[in-house]
Amino acid sequence: MKNVGFIFVFLCLVGCASGSVNSNSLQEEGYGAVMYRQTPPATPESVGLFLAEFDEADGSIGVIDTPWSDRRLNKWESIWDTEQHYQLAWLKPGLYVVRSFHQQDKWQLCFHEDAVVFEITAGEVSYLGQLDVSEFTMALQLNVMKEDGGDLVKFGSETSSYYFDGVPRLEFSAPSKNELVRVDGFIARQPATTQMSTKSADVERHPFQTKTYLTGGRRCN
């Protein structure tokens, strides 16, 4: 357990801070957004979720067309309402899947067997609810210990470690009516989203296809 804690601290120390985005014009350009409340509130920015475009017909996933320079990874904006910690991502209208839980981008738990799928509508914030990331952080650390022996040499490299076993089921706590009202008011007070409405995300569950590297080895993206 001491080694697991060390991995967590080390990964946090070498984390990259999340970038902010000029989102004032995204609403006018036809984007929507997805948001969830993250607990514990003090979770490091180096931990989070990756999304992907989802094709319901064949279960394939694709690269998200985002307004960020790095098109391989979607970026979340971290926003606070007093002691509530929210994560918000701007997306074009369409169907999306929560692909993986990551630490430092490089270590990922893949949700391919039973993934959360939701739809984005222009001018709306789809609110997923609350997510406690503690269980996923621990599962990721245990996978790093088991599969990589705590090896952190991938930091700074172009490859990632994907884990497909021992992955907890991703569940957001559906928002109550009162929480949705509070979130809607919070969104209305933000300059970038002042004209947007908030709705509880319509979540479905689907598997998605994984891929392999040309040199072998399974990928989650």
Task: Describe the fold and architecture.
The chain is α+β, with helices and mostly antiparallel strands. The strands form three sheets. Strands 2, 3, 6, 7, 8, 10 and 12 form a seven-stranded mixed beta sheet that branches. Strands 4-5-1-9-11 form a five-stranded mixed beta sheet. It is 18% helix and 34% strand. A hairpin with a 5-residue loop joins strand 13 (211-212) and strand 14 (218-219). The protein starts with a helix and ends with a strand.
Keywords:
alpha+beta; seven-stranded mixed sheet; disordered N terminus; 14 strands; 221 residues
Low-confidence stretches: 1-22, 68-73, 152-156
Tell me about the largest β-sheet: 7 strands, mixed
> How many H/I helical runs?
3
Calculate the terminal CA-CA distance, rounded to whole Å. Answer: 30 Å
User: Whole-number radius of gyration?
Assistant: 17 Å
Element order: H for helix, E for strand: HEEEEEEEEEHEHEEEE
Mean pLDDT: 81
Instruction: Name the shape in a single word.
Output: globular
Question: How does the helix and strand content classify structurally?
Answer: alpha+beta
Helix percent band:
10-25%
Number of strands: 14
Offer a quick outline of the entry.
The chain has about 220 residues and is of the alpha+beta class.
List the helices and strands and how they pair.
Blueprint: H1 2-13, E1 32-39, E2 47-55, E3 60-62, E4 77-81, E5 84-91, E6 94-103, E7 107-110, E8 115-120, E9 124-132, H2 134-148, E10 161-163, H3 177-188, E11 197-200, E12 204-206, E13 211-212, E14 218-219
Parallel strand pairs: 1-9, 7-10, 9-11
Antiparallel strand pairs: 1-5, 2-3, 2-6, 4-5, 6-7, 6-8, 8-12, 13-14
Helix pairs in contact: 1-2
